[in-house]
Structure formats: structure tokens, C-alpha cells
Amino acid sequence: MKKIVLLRHGQSLWNLENKFTGWTDVPLTQQGINEARHAGALLKEQGFNFEKAYTSYLCRAVNTLNYVLEELNQEWIPVEKSWRLNEKHYGALQGLNKQETSAKYGEKQVQLWRRAYLFAPPPLPKQDPRLPYFDLRYQNVPTPYLPDTESLKDCVERVLPFWQERIFPALETHSTLLVVAHGNTLRAIIKHIKKINDEKIMELNLPTGVPFVMEFNGLLELSKDYFLGN
After folding, report:
1. Is 144 helix (H, G, I), strand (E, B) or coil?
2. Which long-range CB contacts under 8 A does 42-46 form with residues at least 24 apart?
3. Residue 199: which pLDDT band, with cuts at 50, 70 and 90?
4. I need a surface site. Which of 9, 101, 173, 183 has the fewest CB within 10 A?
5. Residue 230: is its pLDDT beyond 80?
């Protein structure tokens, strides 16, 4: 039996402040650190021994992974980072309070921006310093690939090449992998694996710091999936 564990990062500062985060680099709160450590302890209790891990370029995911591996005493395993695992880009909504944005634009519109498959938030203005091509960490990413906003569809199209070319093929030689990323990028992976339609994916929510386990049979077909813990 082969396994891939998906883990959304622990609570970030902007999760706590109820702000749209996207590609903005925001640290974990103390609760987020505790969630990461708890996830690691839970995985250790369940006997998980990972052979490789993957994460995004954003510190809330990277730091969550580090705390998890520390709890597991598995800091030595190889880790691969990719911008393709970054959170969905929320465009001009990044940094705005979700409740205040709902009051301004209406709850239905904001829900579409947050959850719907085809709706992208308003883009960041041209030359906005928050655009990713002004960030040193993305200097080797071709400019056309760097978003100023994204729908979930855009996010899926960004994530899937990395899943199909780097993560999933690793199951041929490894038995247990860990992916620590973000709510929407992990939803994109689950949508692909479980063949969830565009409307149903709006209902899927991944809590922070709770491991989601996918088990695959000898043919690398999904046989079982479940959350660990409560």
C-alpha cells in the first residue's frame, strides 16, 4: 500500500485576522505552530515514515513542514519546494479583511471569488510591488506563468503539472510521501485524484494542520482517503 499525505499549513497570522492571503508571505501564529507540531505527533503515533516531502515557496507551508519533520525525527528526508504549490493568487483581494470585503461587494460575490471554479478575483494593478515577478524567489519562473490573480481553475492548471511530473511518479520508487501546501492547491490535487466536479469542489474545505491521507493500491489507484484525528 502506497500513501501520500496532504497537509494544509497551520494557522497563519492572516488566517487569524481573517484576511485574504494568496501569495503574500505571512508567518504562522503560535496556534499554527501548535497545529503543525500536533500533526507531526499524530503522524508519528500512526507510524508514518516519509521518504520525501514537497512544499511551496511560502513560509507558512515551509515552516509547517519543518515542525512536522522535527516531531517525526525525520528532518533528514529530501524536500522539494515549488512555486507551483503556492496558494491560489487572490489578486487585489490580498491583505483585505474577508468580512469587510463581503460587506462591500456582497457575500455571494466574495464566495464566488473564494470558492467557485471559474471566477478569479480582481487582478493586482500593473507595476504593483506585490506582483510575483518583483519577488526574488520567482526570478527563474517565466513571467507568463506568474499570476496577478487566479481562479481555482487557474490554480488547478498550475498545480497539476507538478503533481503529474514530480509527486505522483515518485510513488513508483517510494511508498510514503508528504505534501505540505495550501487550502486551494491541495483542493486542486484532491479534485484531480477523486474526479470531483466543478460545483462540488466548492464544498470541499481542508482545515489547517489536519493530515489528509490518500492510500493507493499496487496499480496506483486511489483505494481509500481519510483525515487523521478529529
Report:
1. helix
2. 42/211, 42/228, 42/229, 43/5, 43/68, 43/71, 43/72, 43/211, 43/228, 44/71, 44/72, 44/73, 46/228
3. confident
4. 173
5. no
The single residue of 35, 38, 71, 87 carrying the catalytic annotation is 87
Q: Are 36 and 42 in contact (CB under 8 A)?
A: no
DSSP secondary structure letter of residue 143: G
Angle among Cα 148, 160, 46 to the nearest 5 degrees reads 115
Spell 171-205 as b/e; 16+ CB within 10 A means b: eeebebbbbbbbbbbbbbbbbebeebeeeebbeee
In this structure, are residues 60 and 29 in contact, taking their beta carbons and an 8 Å threshold? no
Paired sense of beta strands 52-55 and 222-227, if any: unpaired
> Rounded CA gap, 90 and 137, in Å?
19
Q: How far is it, in rounded angstroms, from Cα 141 to Cα 183?
A: 22
| pTM (two decimals) | 0.95
Would you call 9 a catalytic residue per the annotation?
yes
What's the rounded Cα separation, in Å, for the pair 120 and 90?
8
- The active-site residue, picked from 9, 38, 89, 182, is 9
Q: Which residue has the cell 478569479?
A: 120
SS3 of residue 165 by DSSP: helix
Number of Cβ within a 10 Å radius of residue 162: 19
Average pLDDT, the chain: 95
Pairwise CA distance, residues 18 & 103, whole Å? 14
Q: Single out the residue of 10, 81, 2, 75 nearest to residue 44, CA to CA.
A: 75
Q: Does the pLDDT at position 200 exceed 90? A: no
For residue 28, which of 70, 56, 58 has the smallest C-alpha distance? 58
